[in-house]
Amino acid sequence: MSAPAIKFDLTAPPVVKTIGQRSLIVGVVFGIIALVLAFTRPDEFYRGYLLGFMCWLGLALGSMAILMIRHLTGGGWGMVIRRILGAAMRTLPLLVVLFIPIVIAVLEHRIYPWLMPLDAIQDPHIREHLEKHGFIKDAYLNPSGFIIRAVLYFFIWNLSSFLLSHWSRQTDAAGAPDNTQKFKAVAGPGLILYGFTISFAAIDWVMSLDPSWISTIFGLIILIGEVLAAMCFAVVVERILFDYKPMSEMLKPDFVHDHGKWMLTFTMVWAYFSFSQWLIIWAGNLPNEISFYLKRIENGWGTIALTLALFGFCVPFAILLSRPFKRDIRKLVWLAIWIIVIRYLDLFWIIEPNFSKSLSITVADIVVPIAIGGFWLWFFFRNLAALPLLPAYDPSAIEVIEPPHHHGGT
Known about the structure:
By secondary structure, the protein is an all-alpha fold. It has one domain (16-387). It is built from 19 helices and no strands. The relative contact order is 0.20. The chain starts with 14 loop residues before the first helix and ends in a 9-residue tail after the last helix. The protein has helices at 15-40, 42-73, 76-79, 82-89, 92-98, 100-107, 124-132, 134-139, 143-169, 180-205, 218-241, 247-250, 253-284, 287-297, 301-320, 323-327, 329-351, 363-386, 398-401.
C-alpha cells in the first residue's frame, strides 16, 4: 500500500509541553508534602501511596491493552488515539521507579499483615487465617517472592511496551516497513500475558492486604477498571488536543462515537464482574469471603458502595446510550473525567477499609496520588510531544488522514 498523502503538520501542539511543565510543578509541590507525610505519618503515607500507584499504573497498562486490541482489530478509532495510548504505555519505566516506595513498605513490614507478627494483627479473621495457613505465608507471601514477582510483571509489561513502541517509531519516516503482522504477533500473546500478570499483581499488591479473603474474579475487576480508565483518559487528552491542529483535522465524530461505545462496553463489563463477585460471595455467605463486603457496607463505607453502583454504572450507562452524546467530544469528555474519578473512588473503596473500620479519608489519600499523578502526567506529555500525533507512514494511517464514508467501528 502506498504512503498516504500528508496534508497537515502532525507535530503535537505547544500546549502539550505547557501542560507537562505545569504537571511537573504540581508533582514537585505535592511530592514535598508527601515526603513530609512519609516521615511523620508513614502508615498513612504508604496506604495513600499504594492507592495512587494503582490508579496511575492502571492508565499505563489499560492504554497498552487498548493499543494491543487495536493492533488486532484495526479501525480508525484506534489509529487516531494510537500515539496517546502509546505515550501512556511508555510511562511504564517511570512506574518501575515509582514502585520503589512499595518495596520499601514491604521491607519495613508495613501495611501488609502477612509481614507482621501474629499478635500485631488486629483483624481476628486475618490473624486466624495466617495462624492456620502459615505454609501459604512461608511459600508465597514473603518479601523475596513479592519482589521477584514484581520484577517479572514489570519485565513483561516493559518488554511489550518496548516492542510496540519501537515498531511504531519506524512508521514515522517515508519508506517505513509494514509492521502490521509484527504488531499482531506481540498483541495476541501480549493481551493474554497482561491478563495473567495484572491478575497476579492485583493479588500480590491489593488482595493480600486481607489474605483471609479470596476471589477468582478480582483480577478481572482490576483489569477492566484499568482499560475503562485508560479509554476515558484518551478521551480527555483528545479533547485537549481537539482545539489545535492536527487533532482538529483528524478527530471525526465517528471516531468519538466509537470511543464512547468502548466506554459503554467497559462500563457494562466492570459492572457485570463486580456484581458477579458480590452475588456469588453474598449467596455463599462464607465467613472468610463475606467479611470483605461486610467491611465495605458498614460504618459509612456503604455510602461509597452505593455511589459506585449509581454513579459508576447506572448514570454513565444511561447517558452513554445516547448516540448524539457519544458523538460530541465536548460532552463526552465530562463523563470521561467523572468516570476517572469513580475509578479512584473504586480503588479507595477496595484498599482503605483494610486499614480503617469506619469511613475516613486521610490527607495522604489525596496528596500522594496527586503527587504521583503530577510526575506521571509530566512524563506522559513528554512522551506525547516526542513523536508525531499520527504514525503517518503506517498503512492504516489512511483511515484517519483520508477517511472513507464509514469508519471502522467497534
